[in-house]
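Problem 12. The chain below contains 219 residues. Write out its predicted structure in token notation.
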Amino acid sequence: MARPRTPMLSVRGIRTAALRLIDRDGLENLSMRRLAQELDVQAASLYSHYRTKEDLLADIANEIMAEVDVSGFESGDWRHGLTVWARSYRAALAAHPNLVPVIAAGPGRREAALRRADAVHGGLVAAGWPARHATMIGASTKYLVVGAAINSFARGFDADVQVYRDRYPNLSQAHRLSEHAAEIDNDSFELALSAFLDGLDRTFAALGHEPGAQHAGGD
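Solution.
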């Protein structure tokens, strides 16, 4: 049997190629025409799988969010649940920083994102948080994670010591930050997360709960 002239396409293959293009060239450089060139097909071939670029991006975002772990809430310990969720969420976004604007826009109708939002909110309420607080905690955690994932603090400093010498005496070691960027960025995220959770512990206590208390089942 003769081989088809046009490469066989699948939605998974299209998503993989699109994400590779976004990771490499940036979100602004994704177009259906550009993606078709990447796959060595005609653009019309893509539209039989995805009607619009927005549909494709939603599917990619959904796939990435499916990797985020919310299982920590199953223990009934809201602090553990938030810790597992925040770390996993940050890792998923940090792996594809160019796609963060799409994911950060909200779950929309994306199934994986909505399931995780449901698990987070339900886990917090079941642990004893009022629904309004659970909503705000979910939002606050998202702000912390997205800010940490979208760029690197440490890599934002120039590695030339002459930039800082004499003019910025309090930044005399700033040229070394990029050498230790991964460590600094990770430790900074963990510090912010810990401080955030400690603050929530105090708020939880002010609501009448013992610090570290678990209220599985909404008791």
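Discussion. The radius of gyration is 22 Å. Students who got a different answer should revisit the alignment rule from Section 12.3.
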